[in-house]
């Protein structure tokens, strides 16, 4: 899947949060958006080091990977404060902004267990086909990491202990219900 056409198209990879991702202190989220060496449902396998050049260039330019809701560039829902590669994959840590309507919705859906996926938006710089028809992704230009409904990589999903702060979640639900009631009037 991608935005645009041809070689410059922005691709997206969906994956579930894995056991290491957690939502804490109401809106902080962390975990792996991509796992190295794991074949996704489309047959792509991200290789260790694939994000390095992109992350370095963004850092030098003072830019950040965007946190979006369902890959919609018009719906940012928070900020990724840490994005880095380690031996396992692409680790992300950030805050969902409850002050943004889509952020409040995302927190409520995560708490309810309805949303458990992360998806990366990127442009392929260098890839090759393996003998088994997999596409080995060696270098990617990372643009965004989204919270999504349908993940592509089974190894990345919300952990068993992931939950939003109950008081904040109840406040968000009340705020959304009040806003909905105002719109109905």
TrEMBL record:
InterPro entries: Peptidase_S78_dom, Prohead_protease. GO terms for molecular function: peptidase activity. Pfam families: Peptidase_S78. Keywords: Hydrolase, Protease, Viral release from host cell. GO terms for biological process: proteolysis. It comes from the Bacteria. Residues 25-159 form the Prohead serine protease domain. NCBIfam families: proheadase_HK97. This is Peptidase U35.
